[in-house]
Amino acid sequence: MSEMTNSSLDRRTLLRRAAAVGLVAAPGVSLLSACAGSDDSGDTKQATGTKSADNPLGIDPKAGVEIVIFDGGLGTKYATDVDTPLFNKKWPDAKITYSATQQVSTTIKPRLNAGSPPDMINNSGSDIMDFGAIVKAGQAADLTDLFAAPSLDVAGKTVAETLVPGAVQQGTYGGKPYAVNYNFTVFGLWYNKKLFEKNNWTVPTTWADFTALLDKIKAAGITPFGYAGANAPYYMVRAIMTSAAKIGTEQVLKDIDNLKPGAWTNDAVLQAAKAWGEVGTKYVDKSFLGLKHTEVQLQHNQDKVAFYPCGSWLENEQAASTPAGFEYAMMPVPSVTAADKLPATAINAAAGEIYFAAAKGKNPQGGKEYLRTMLSKEAALEFTKLTKSLTVVAGAADGVTISPGLTSANDALSKAGPDVFVGYLFDTWYKKLDDASREAANQLMFKGGDAQKFCDTMEAASQAVAKDSSIAKFPRS
Amino acid sequence: MRHGKYPFIIGFLVVPLALYLVFVVGAYLQMFQLSFTDWSGFGGFHYVGFDNFVKLMEDPVFWIALRHNLYILIAMPIVTIAIALFFAFLLNVGGKSRGGTTQGVRGSKAYRIIFFFPQLLALAIVAVIFGRVFGPDRSGMLNGLFPDSWSPWLFLADERWALLCIAVVLIWQQIGFYVVLFSAGMGSIGQEIYEAAALDGATKVTLFFRITLPLLWDTLQVAWVYLGIAAFDLFALVNIMSVNKGGPNNATQVLSYQIYLNAFQNSQAGYASAIGVVLFFLTLTFAALTLRVTRRDAVA
């Protein structure tokens, strides 16, 4: 018996001592602090060369450039097979060191903090780094000289002049451009063109026509509308915000981005939330709250869901599971009221997918030159061919037929004419507000459609961010 | 060769101790330091005193997360230990006595291996699998088993049941280990004690409560502390299984996930460290309390 008591005492003492030094406590936290530390190592030698007409950014022709590409929906072929060869055609002695990752934050953040980042970084994916924080920490290079430099293959124009309106503005933080948002995305409601033709369903432009069509679709035994509540409610946020902008112009969204008091309780937001809340209560399958985007998109492909709010990457993302009888097409979000300030054809199209040059790398100018290569017309066209996504290089893919979904998006873009708006930026600027909007959208669409509650919740969240001095603020005009 | 003992021991200890100091103690010290800063996760920082902790007290989500951790802390160990004890008892002394010795139910060796299986799977894989088991439409395993006339249960998408679903998975995953742990404990209880009790006419129930349980007390205590610490974690399950980041409507929010969101998504590493400090003290208090409250001085 005494033996047993002894061993038990040992075990208890051991456990207590282990707990005392924290062996067993609070897992996970230690990981986080592991990457704090040295931050002022910007004095490493950076490569430079002499500026000339042929070398407007003044790069060192012999210095290597390290690039990191996010390996996601767009693939990496555009970098390895298009951009890098194009770069090396002009600068044969500059060695490009390429790597791809799906864990951008995990692989890049420690290198930024250690002062030895890659020169050009594609910040994207679910493990994306908070770009506002990167800018605030002085880790992103100022791209003013890149946008002012002459375009690589459009004679007589600067890089900025070859881009679609708003492209530079979207990478601008506190008055200076720090990011190239390369991919140009058109947002709308996606449907199967063949299914609609078969049933003689026509594309609605007013809200009354829209809900009438949703009724017809429901009667045909198809879920009229859906999005994935588990991981992609921000697609729905986009749709609600688009409606709000159409009702009250883009100023509504600018006020929201500027965290202006009363921006969310604005009448335009309330009307938009009311209209969508009704769609949520009547036409959405409740189980979608627990589904992921891949699952809802698959049901869309199987004609079990009619309308899906998304960006123009959808067609490429679903390429492998799209059956023969399915042809992607998109329509603009219909007008909510007859008094909407923007026309029914108005659409939200925005530059996305951040590429930036690291300020504290070995060769920031080389990183910028790589970006200049990507922004050439030739590289942009090849990118669109490979990824079925448009770029911010204006008109680069004009006259080239690539896929039905992309053609449809391009058509909507030309029909909208001047009524193309950038949308909102708060989701990348203020992550907490982004989270709040996702939850509020889920509540609105799946839990009874209370529009006033949606506005009040978001107003409170927005004001909480405005008051929090630890969050860097970005004004928008 | 008495003087040769210490270099020998030190030789064994120096590497693990150095690793421990650098990657555990060092990281903790830095966490404490960072909790008093406004560090975003990039670049430099300023010291802000107790600001992060004040903010924490006023953050409703923090309190929701804390409450969920406490629910799990109370319910999960009790249920896990009860079930594991029951199975372990069946496997060891639950069967017919043969030739005067008690033994487990038939096939108990095979069961012991089967019970341990979940422990061999990575928690992430368990989470993905159960995500499908709890699928909210007909493609979900449980909903697929229900009769067609029922409308599908939402499980993880229903804020009333979401946390329970996650707790069930955790219990399912943990039980195997504790069945084995308790079995080992029961194995060391002498057969002659059971025999003596059986001769005196004790039933299976009496055997369990009067003999097995008291003699297993130390093992139970250890199990309780381990399970409590697991209840403070929950990160992997919530990260993979929860609807909309600890939702719906924060129904599955827990402290470890709040640390993750604030540190890696919201760029508020200082604030996340403050939550880490709170979690550290909570776990420590829990372990100390458990060991003290359940202490039983040797009866024999």
Keywords:
heterodimer; A: 477 residues; alpha/beta; D-Maltodextrin-Binding Protein, domain 2; 12 strands; disordered N terminus; B: 300 residues; mainly alpha; MetI-like fold; 13 helices; 69% helix; globular
Describe the protein.
The complex is a heterodimer of chains A (477) and B (300). Chain A has helices at residues 2-20, 29-33, 77-90, 104-113, 131-136, 144-148, 167-170, 193-198, 207-219, 234-248, 251-257, 267-283, 293-301, 314-317, 364-374, 377-387, 404-416, 426-429, 431-446, 451-467, and strands at 65-70, 96-101, 120-123, 172-173, 176-177, 180-192, 223-225, 305-311, 328-331, 347-357, 390-391, 420-421. Chain A has 20 helices and 12 strands. The model of chain A is unreliable at 1-9 and 14-43 (pLDDT under 50). Chain A folds into 2 domains: 65-185 and 350-418, 3-Layer(aba) Sandwich (D-Maltodextrin-Binding Protein, domain 2), CATH 3.40.190; 188-349 and 424-467, 3-Layer(aba) Sandwich (D-Maltodextrin-Binding Protein, domain 2), CATH 3.40.190.10. In chain A, the strands form 2 sheets. In chain A, strands 1, 2, 3, 6, 7, 8, 9, 10, 11 and 12 form a 10-stranded mixed β-sheet that branches. Chain A is α/β, with parallel strands linked by helices and 477 residues long. With 300 residues, chain B is mostly helical. Chain B has one domain (59-293): MetI-like (MetI-like fold), CATH 1.10.3720. Chain B is built from 13 helices and no strands. Chain B is globular.
Task: Quickly describe the structure.
The complex is a heterodimer of chains A (477) and B (300). In chain A, 43% of the residues lie in helices and 13% in strands.
Please bin the fraction of helical residues of chain A. Answer: 40-55%
The coarse silhouette of chain A is globular
- In terms of DSSP E residues, the strand content of chain A is 5-15%
Secondary structure: helix percent of chain B: 55-70%
The best one-word shape of chain B is globular
**CATH topology descriptor of chain B:** MetI-like fold
Strand content of chain B: under 5%
Can you count the helices of chain A?
Answer: 20
| Rg over alpha carbons of chain B | 24 Å
Indicate the structural class of chain B.
Answer: mainly alpha
CATH topology of the largest domain in chain A: D-Maltodextrin-Binding Protein, domain 2
Overall residue-averaged pLDDT value of chain B: 87
**Count of spatially separate domains of chain A:** 2
Query: Biggest interface and its residues per chain?
Result: A-B, 65 and 72 residues
What is the first-to-last residue Cα distance of chain A? 80 Å
